[in-house]
Amino acid sequence: IPSMSEAQEVPHPLHAQKLQYLKDNISKFPPSAFRAIAIGDSLRDIPRDKFTEIKPIANFGESGALHYHCKDQLVDTYSIIPVGVVQFVYIGTCIGNPLMAYQDYEYSLGKTLEVYESARALYPLARIIGLALPPTESVWANLHRPLFEAALWAWCVKDGNAVMESFQKLGTGFLGLFPKMCFSADTVHASPEGVARLNTADRNAQT
Fold first, then answer.
1. Is 40 exposed, middle or buried, given 0-12, 13-18 or 19+ CB atoms closer than 10 A?
2. Are 137 and 104 in contact (CB under 8 A)?
3. I need a labelling partner for 203 at 20 to 30 A (CA). Which of 7, 56, 108, 130 fits?
C-alpha cells in the first residue's frame, strides 16, 4: 500500500471558496451560532442542513476531505469565528477517505490524531466530539476499524473532555459490521433515518 507524504498534500478545491463565504456572511449570524462547530468530510458536509446541533454556517466539513484537509478547516476558520464562544468541536471521520483509498494506516492515524491535538490547542475549554468510522463495505477500512477506534478512544480518555461517537453502533446490520440500508444511503453516507440517529448521538455527546 503506497504511503502518502506531506509533499503530496494539496488544498481541498473548495476550501478557499468556503472560507470566503464564511468571511462574507459571518456578520449575519449571532455569536451563539458558533456554539458548536464541525469539521470533517462528506459525512458532515452532505447532511449539513439536517443537523440539529450544528448550524450550517458553523459546519466547515468538505466532501472528499482527507485528514490534513480537516486540519485546514480547523486552523483556517479559527481567526474568523467569534472568540470564546465555541463549546463543542465535532470532528468528522478524518481517516475515512484515506482508508477508503487504501492509504497507509499508521501514517493516516498519525495525521488524524494531529487534528485532535490541534483542536485541543485551539479550543482548550471545548468538548471535543470525535466521529469514528461509518459502517462500510470497504475491507481496508473494516480491517483497521478496531485499531483506529481503540486509538481514538484512548485519546479521548487521556484528554478528559472528549468523547467518541461510534458510527458503527448507529447504523450497522449484518454481523454488526456492514451498513444496514435503512440507515445508509449508499453503504457509507447516512440516510435521513441515519442522520436522525446521528443527531441524537450529537446531542447526547454534549452531556
1. buried
2. no
3. 108
Cell numbers representing residue 145 in the block: 476499524
Q: Tell me the three cell numbers of residue 199.
A: 443527531
Identity of the residue numbered 22 = L
Identify the residue whose cell numbers are 479550543: 123
The Cα 183–Cα 202 span in angstroms is: 16
Q: What dihedral do alpha carbons 99, 159, 40, 9 form, nearest 10°?
A: -60
pLDDT digits (tens, 9 = 90+) for 122-170: 999 999 999 988 877 788 998 999 999 999 999 999 999 999 998 776 6
Residue with cell 443527531: 199
- For 54-104, what is each residue's pLDDT tens digit? 999 999 999 999 999 999 999 999 999 999 999 999 999 999 999 998 999
Contact 127, 163 (CB under 8 A): yes
128 within 8 A of 162, measured Cβ to Cβ: yes
Distance (Å, rounded) from C-alpha 134 to C-alpha 136?
6
